[in-house]
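Students often ask why inverse folding is considered easier than folding. One informal answer: many sequences map to the same fold, so there is more than one right answer. In these notes we will look at a single instance of the problem. The structure comes first.
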């Protein structure tokens, strides 16, 4: 237990579910938009565009990072943020997005999937807007599932 009631397993499971919500937001965004950006390619095609290696790397990296974010949120950040759980989750994930997004300047130059044309560049407004929406889905889900601690 972490002092707010959840076990490590519950926190990890919440991260996996929130990671699933993020994947759902990818699907919905790509279905409704003309801008096709696949975050699994972003994570999985850092070094290779070879299939099935990038899909395995993408899923493992995505869900691994989802669990790490859930642990950081539950143990260190959640109680320091204002509002109900869903809002705290959104704030946390938008902070993460804002802190990491400047790395797209480098990613656009060295990322295997972007260089090969299989993934559009990240440093543009269409990709950024999609990332905001996807992080809202993850954050709201995480905050709802781990909303007890304050």
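Output (designed amino acids):
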């Amino acid at each position: 237990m972490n002092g707010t009631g959840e076990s490590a397993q519950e926190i990890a499971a919440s991260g996996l579910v929130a990671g699933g919500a993020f994947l759902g937001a990818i699907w919905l965004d790509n279905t409704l938009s003309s801008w096709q950006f696949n975050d699994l390619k972003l994570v999985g095609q850092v070094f290779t565009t070879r299939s099935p290696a990038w899909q395995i790397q993408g899923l493992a990296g995505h869900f691994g990072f989802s669990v790490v974010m859930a642990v950081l949120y539950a143990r260190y950040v959640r109680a320091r943020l204002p509002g109900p759980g869903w809002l705290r989750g959104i704030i946390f994930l938008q902070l993460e997005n804002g802190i990491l997004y400047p790395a797209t300047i480098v990613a656009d130059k060295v990322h295997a999937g972007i260089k090969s044309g299989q993934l559009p560049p990240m440093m543009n407004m269409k990709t950024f807007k999609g990332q905001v929406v996807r992080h809202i889905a993850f954050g709201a889900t995480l905050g709802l599932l781990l909303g007890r601690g304050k």
